[in-house]
Each structure stands twice: as C-alpha cells, then as structure tokens.
Amino acid sequence: MKYILLTPENLEREHICCAISSNKDPQVAAKKAWLRDRLDEGLVFLKAAERGKCFIEYLPAEYAWVPIEAAGYLYIDCFWVSGALKGHGYANDLMERCIADGKAQGRRGLCVIASKKKQPFLSDPKYLTYKGFRLADTAEPFFTLLYLPFDKSAPVPQFRPCAKTPHIDENGFVLYYTAGCPYTAKYVPLIESSAKNAGIPFKSILLENRERAQNAPAAWTNYAFFYNGNYVTNEILSEKKFLALAAEK
User: Interior CA angle at 118 toward 169 and 68, to 5°?
Assistant: First the structure.
C-alpha cells in the first residue's frame, strides 16, 4: 500500500478519508480549515493512497485539543481503517509509522483517548491493547487514556481535573464541539434548528481554540453532549436521534 502525507500544498485536492465523498461538503471544508492550521503545529495526517477510510492523524500532545497532560508525547487524534481495507495489515502499517516518527522526534511515547468498551468514533481499545498500549488514566463515564511509552522512565499521561467528572452548571441541552474529527459542521445546525422548532432548550458551544478545548468539561471534546448539567453522549446525533433523546429526557 502506498501512503500519502498531507501537506499545505496537497491538502485542498486530497480526499481526507472520511465517510463523505465530496470535498465541497461543509464538514470537509471545516475539517480542512482546521487541519491547515494544525499542520504548522506538527500535525501528521497519513492516509492510504487508495480512496477509503484508512488513515492516522496525530500531533504533539502539547497541541492536542483535549484536556490531557502528556508533555513529550504524540497524541493520536484519529485512527481509522474500515470497510474493504480491513484485514490487510494497514492498521499495523500506520501505527508502526507513527511509532517510528515519535521515536525519531525524541518523543516519550504515544497516547490516545479510547473507552472501556468500543464506543462510536473512539479507537478500538482491544487493538490498542494488542499493540502494547497501557491504561494511563480514566474519566467518567467510560473514557480511558491509553499510552505507549518508549522507555520505562516516561511519565504517565493524565486527564486534566476538568475532564475527570464531566458536569456543567447549565440546564437544558448543551453541546460542546470542535471542527476536528469527527465532522460536526453539518449536524450541529440541524440539531439547533430541530431544537428551536420543537421548543427544546439547546445551546451549542464551539471550542474554537486549543486553550478552550484543553480546559473543556469532558474528555472527548469533538462532540460532548450534556443535559441539565450531566454528560450524555459523545455520539454525533442526527435530528431523529436528538428528538428521540429529548423525548426520553
């Protein structure tokens, strides 16, 4: 398999391996704009040359848009191999390249947010454990911070206190989100409209910079849904799922 590294020069023309085929989709445009700024901070987006969902995205943990303390590590932002591309060793290829890059940079290791059991949009904990990742920390309700140290003396990464027990002091539905992966630019306005039409209290908060994301009230910042102050889900909701959730609550 040939792999392609995203650069400022090829970003606009390359497909970024999501479930969306059109580069004109607002979600793709939002993610590419976010990626463009992150490339200058050391973000690496390595993808299969074959069109499909086969890629790894990582960056220095100091620049990660999640509330963790992991100085000197690389943080895996997104890692996805699916469909017909599964079962060919591509996940191992991508992970080994990430490990080699981290060692070449003199990093302490890799870290990634996963879950106790596989959850939507989070990396598979069974695969990560198979590759040698260890449990570094946990955050409610099901998040885990896994790490792969390159030497035994490497400090253990941690979630920041703000993410350990997710809670906010606001009533109604509140959604925190970023322009990172997974893509939310299309779905957030749809839910806003559905909530308004149904008279459901709803507020969306775009975490528009790294500092806000690193101090967010939940471990997974790309999509964190709350109701009456309590954490609900990290799953991107369609209009139908949101209205069903609202009826349930």
Answer: 50
